[in-house]
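User: Hey, my collaborator sent me this sequence without any context and asked if I could get a structure. I don't really work with proteins. Can you help?
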Amino acid sequence: MNRPSFARPGRCAVVAIAVLVVGWVVGVGLWGAGRDTHEETRQAHGIQAPQGDLPAPAGRDLDSGELGPVVQEQLAQLRAMPVIQPDPSLSDRVPAEAKTHPDLYAAEFVRVLLTQDYGRPRQEHLAWVATEAGTTAEPLIVGLVPPELRDRLPVYSVVAQGDGPTSSPIPSAAEWARLAALGGYTTVTDIRVSEPLAWSNAVEAGRVTDPGVTAREITATITMHTTAGGATSASRSSVSLTADFVGPPTQPSWRFVNVVLYTSLPEGRS
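Assistant: No problem. I've predicted the 3D structure and written it out in structure-token form, which is a compact way to encode the shape of the chain:
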């Protein structure tokens, strides 16, 4: 699948939620190199390592003295984040048949993730993400995230703010409330799924140790519907989301691990 063109007027939010920017993630973060940055704003957030920070060798944990201050701060944010409990009653939002194949699951997961009704509690949407969450010990995915924090990573990766309240797949609580006051909701169309080249290269090089993990890039069009002063409006954005997933044989069915990269480019308003 061809990557959609981003050389259009507008403000593009590029949100790298790269877990310590290690392994295959570095390749994903480089796909936009060389583009005209006058038309976009690049935003990095989540847990990212300065160049040179790599996962500890197997069997050895890195102590805080070996981590840069940025990484320590981001890990502190992850540690301070409250644990969101899963809600089994929400598990049917992704059809069972979609959980049998990574492409189907990636498409359905992103469809539900980005289809947001701001009149409903934000916490409910976070609980759904927690319900779909899976874990892995794969170093190329979890990087320097301590084992005791990895269960928080799925939710953290969809809410961590880069630059502004809408710079993550799920907006901040304040932005959610603002959109609720406008009767806001989103619809998602034109979903397409592909395997990132950086990930397939890592697999071919034998760098992936967990046979159940994979990565997918999902592109889509989001339409935001709002009402103000009795007038309704709709604004469209092109989005691209790269995420890690875990499934057979590690998990019985496909689950969500974390968002690696999220980009959003406004297209127009009607």
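In plain terms: The mean pLDDT is 80. You can pass these tokens on to your collaborator as they are.
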